[in-house]
Amino acid sequence: MSNRTPNTEEQFKGVMAECRTLFEKKLHDYGASWRILRPSSLTDQLFIKAKRIRSLEIKKHSLVGEGIRPEFVALINYGIVGLIQLERGYVDKVDLTPTEALACYDRHAQEALALMIRKNHDYDEAWRAMRVSSYTDFILTKIQRIKELEDIHGEALVSEGIDANYMDIINYAVFGAIKLTGENNIA
Question: pTM for this structure?
């Protein structure tokens, strides 16, 4: 067993590479069909993924047979989809090729990594001492904030915008995926 301290940036990049691979495969199968999602529908998709994680954390048993970690991966990918949708708006007909969608994905994934590096520096790896269930609760809180911001059409007085909440969801979900790597997480 190695005494080497885990490198957060390497672990983050590893999870993001896994997420990108899945995203690319889904682009092959479905194209960028998510371009049709309106903001509220995307928020609800994030909500059901996070709610399922919380449910599995509490019940400790899945009847579907899929564990918590795949839901964190889904939250990461839907968080990036959310950033793309904020940037481009939703459409009635898919308007991105898989190559264009991947370029957007990569740019936002890089922004999430850069934000994590800055915050991790300031917070001094505090995420490592947190419980995975806290990531889940923080993600659900961020989703609730997005709902509130959507209801007031993004006209916040003092709060971060929807994009900052998507970035935080991505980063908390990556931390959850890192912590659950190689663990039996209610499969």
Answer: 0.93
